[in-house]
Amino acid sequence: MSNQTIKLGAGLRQDCDTISVMKAGTLRLSKPNKYWVESSHKRYVPCVEDTVLGIVVDSKPDNFLVDIKAPTLAFLPVLAFEGGTRRNIPKFEVGTLLYVRVVKANNSMNPELSCMDDTGKAAEFGPLKDGYVFETSTGLSRMLLSSPTCPVLEALGKSLSYELAVGLNGRVWVNAASPSTVILVSNAIINSEFLSGVQQKIMVEKLMKRLQ
Amino acid sequence: MGEMEVDRADGRTASQLRPLACSRNTLHRAHGSARWSQGDTIVLAAVYGPKAGTKKGENPEKASIEVIWKPKTGHIGKLEKEYEMVLKRTLQSICLLTIHPNTTTSIIVQVLGDDGALLPCAINASCAALVDAGIPLKHLAVSICCGLTESGSVILDPTKAEEQKIQAFAYLVFPNSPLSVLSKGSSAEDDEPIEHGTITSVTHGVMPVLDYFNCLERGRAASAKISEFLRRSLESQTK
């Protein structure tokens, strides 16, 4: 292992000559050289290029202060929107739910967010209206966003139509035409955390039978 | 001093610990929680944080830790404040405080049952709760209570009745030994391995120095068992 450059991700740190672990979890390797510890918690540690769901807590002249379940509040610059100028600053009330991207994240500063993608387009980022938000663990959010599609979402999509936004910080937003559909989708997602793929499909089938 | 047969009320030998049980993620709203029991001493620890902002007297360049001790019955008095201070200092030495500066992590310890060795049980519960919350730690802490009888022999993990009878006892906290993978070409460790250190020691009663060192040795040997149990329990609950 000597003479190799490796990248240390979340949960690992370098202590002089040794690499030691900071959190309990599974050690993962992504070829060629990136190692990290994967674990699921109720709080979120911000990483660059993550898409998260934040709730506006306050607004300042230059930034919105957004809560993303991280150790500190995140800043969303007032101009970080597609075609954003000083004349058309959006007005977000306290409590608005936003789908944003993390642009800067290091431990000594507040994380910075943006409502644009790399090229400067809006690309689905921005406020989410209606619907229902609930909190999950970061592990469940990662499972919901994994590809191929998570079994529970696929099974629900076969018989229901719903809209879903998943933040890697452990927040999920669900919207559908009727409240009963929203409740069913949310309950199915929350119950699927510790089930295997087959168990998830069976659970969804049982829920659908009860609906009829 | 030879290993003398000690008569303990519950039939344990001098070095035998009570049955340990640990369950994590027991509280829904807390960011991390753990319930640790040693026999009839049961402690529930909840961790909230890290949250932004530090208190007035704390250093903003480091994370600060706040401990609240809730006894099973009665008002909060000096004994609870002492436990809070010992717990805070112990946890400060195992947490990596520079990772999230200017934040506060709150740990709330609720005593559910007290049958001796209360502070060690609380330290073990808090450590498991910190792991559950994902707070970055240097290593884990395992804690044990060693009592010294009149005959000079050391008994481990005394119950409340035993604690009141014996001459002196000590609560000891040791770092758990890390599992490491060393590359073949590395030189031998020059410094003492980490498991020879002691994080915290709180004594009650009067004991001779040699007996105290004896307690430390016995405690360190037994802490390996608790460390093994904690590691197994954490592994089984990690997906």
Automatic annotation (TrEMBL), chain A:
GO cellular component, one term: cytoplasmic exosome (RNase complex)
Keywords recorded for this protein, A-Z: Cytoplasm, Exosome, Nucleus, RNA-binding, rRNA processing
InterPro entries to which the protein is assigned, alphabetical: Exosome_RNA_bind1/RRP40/RRP4, KH_dom_type_1, KH_dom_type_1_sf, NA-bd_OB-fold, RRP40_KH-I, Rrp40_N_euk, Rrp40_S1
Subcellular location: Cytoplasm; Nucleus, Nucleolus
Organism: Canna indica (Indian-shot)
GO MF, one annotated term: RNA binding
Entry-linked PANTHER family: EXOSOME COMPLEX COMPONENT RRP40 (PTHR21321:SF1), PNAS-3 RELATED (PTHR21321)
Name of the protein this chain belongs to: Ribosomal RNA-processing protein 40
Domain Exosome complex exonuclease Rrp40 N-terminal intervals: 6-43
Sequence similarity: Belongs to the RRP40 family.
Keyword Flavoprotein among UniProt keywords: no
GO biological process, one term: poly(A)-dependent snoRNA 3'-end processing
Coiled-coil zones: none
Residues of the K Homology domain: 131-179
Signal peptide: none
Lineage top rank: taxon: Eukaryota
Pfam families from the UniProt entry: KH_6, Rrp40_N, RRP40_S1
UniProtKB/TrEMBL annotation, chain B:
InterPro entries cross-referenced by the UniProt entry: ExoRNase_PH_dom1, ExoRNase_PH_dom2_sf, PNPase/RNase_PH_dom_sf, Ribosomal_Su5_D2-typ_SF, RNase_PH
BP GO terms, sorted: nuclear mRNA surveillance; poly(A)-dependent snoRNA 3'-end processing; rRNA catabolic process; rRNA processing; U4 snRNA 3'-end processing
CDD domains: RNase_PH_RRP46 (cd11372)
GO molecular function, one term: exonuclease activity
This protein's record includes keyword Disulfide bond: no
Primary localization: nucleus
Keywords assigned by UniProt, alphabetized: Exonuclease, Exosome, Hydrolase, Nuclease, Nucleus, RNA-binding, rRNA processing
One GO CC term, this protein: nucleolus
Pfam family, one: RNase_PH
Domain (Exoribonuclease phosphorolytic): residue spans on this chain: 16-136
Family: Belongs to the RNase PH family.
PANTHER family, sorted: EXOSOME COMPLEX COMPONENT, EXOSOME COMPLEX COMPONENT RRP46
Protein name as catalogued: Exosome complex exonuclease RRP46 homolog
